[in-house]
Design goal:
By secondary structure, the chain is an alpha/beta fold. Helices cover about 45% and strands about 10% of the residues. The protein has two domains: about 15-180 and about 250-269, P-loop containing nucleotide triphosphate hydrolases (Rossmann fold, 3-Layer(aba) Sandwich); about 180-245, no CATH class. The chain has helices spanning about 30-35, 65-75, 90-100, 120-135, 160-165, 180-190, 195-200, 205-215, 225-260, and strands at about 15-20, 45-50, 60, 80-85, 110-115, 140-145. A six-stranded parallel β-sheet has the order 3-2-4-1-5-6, sandwiched between helices.
Length: about 270
């Protein structure tokens, strides 16, 4: 039996983080929803430009035109995540440029990058340079190195990125990697949260298991007993994976936001 008995070593931090990349398919939503959000203390989550598409129940959608309202919340709340959709990237940058000094409202800018293509790397580099030109200090920029699990190539697209980071004196750590996209797609299909699997004893807590069984969309079949058993097995397998990933992601989060900001350069890794 699997028991989720993880104990928090330290209180969750209160941070204000902007997740941004001018390229699509860089892992912004997965990074924000599954890596950052669970590890902050009661964060408010804004998604700029999503217009209620693919929005979780506790996430707030806002167009770039309302960015000033988002920044009012940034100044009032202690933990805030702002994720910028690619379709609103240009307008968001324009608004931030007009709102001089608004980048100071954030503790960090997280740029997730996937090594799937030279274009995505080039777009990511462009995003980083735009942030620097806007006035964001290098120590506030964090890079999440997302490996593409479907790509098998001897060429490492991250080399061009790390060369740029060294040139701009932006510290980084190649150990800050996120690689389990298929697992989070599974969670979406099961209609479960990461916390469902890691903060509760799902195996023995039958009441909680019944609750999440009722939430499950995939296994609502006519044969209730068969459906519950099938869902139960899926939950157990998902929980085993989640507990393993939680430890890995705790380490990545600490690398990005809780360790000394001077990570090092390519020569160190």
């Amino acid at each position: 039996m699997i028991h989720a008995t993880h104990q928090t070593r330290n209180p969750k931090p209160q941070l204000k983080i902007c997740i941004i990349n001018s390229s699509g398919n860089s892992g912004k939503t997965i990074s924000g929803r599954w890596l950052v959000k669970p590890r902050l203390q009661d964060p408010v989550y804004f998604r700029i430009g999503y217009n209620n598409r693919n929005i979780s129940g506790d996430e707030v959608s806002a167009p770039a035109e309302k960015l000033i309202n988002v920044h009012i919340e940034l100044m009032m709340d202690t933990s805030v995540i702002v994720e910028v959709e690619i379709s609103e990237y240009e307008r968001t940058i324009d608004r931030m440029t007009q709102m001089m000094g608004c980048h100071e409202d954030y503790d960090f800018f997280l740029v997730p990058v996937v090594d799937s293509s030279p274009k995505l790397i080039a777009d990511s580099i462009g995003t980083i340079k735009t942030l620097i030109n806007m006035g964001v200090p290098p120590h506030k920029i964090r890079i999440l190195f997302n490996r593409d699990p479907g790509r098998h190539s001897a060429y490492d697209y991250f080399e061009e990125l790390t060369d740029t980071l060294n040139e701009l004196k932006i510290s980084y750590d190649l150990n800050a990697q996120f690689q389990c996209y298929d697992f989070y797609e599974k969670l979406e299909a099961l209609n479960l949260s990461f916390e469902d699997l890691t903060e509760h004893d799902l195996i023995n807590a039958q009441a909680h298991l019944k609750k999440i069984t009722e939430k499950g969309r995939v296994y609502r079949l006519t044969d209730t007993e068969k459906a519950a058993k099938s869902f139960y097995i899926e939950v157990v397998l998902a929980q085993r994976a989640a507990l393993a990933y939680k430890s890995e992601h705790d380490e990545v989060f600490e690398i990005l936001f809780q360790n000394n900001p001077e990570f090092g350069t390519a020569e160190n890794y």
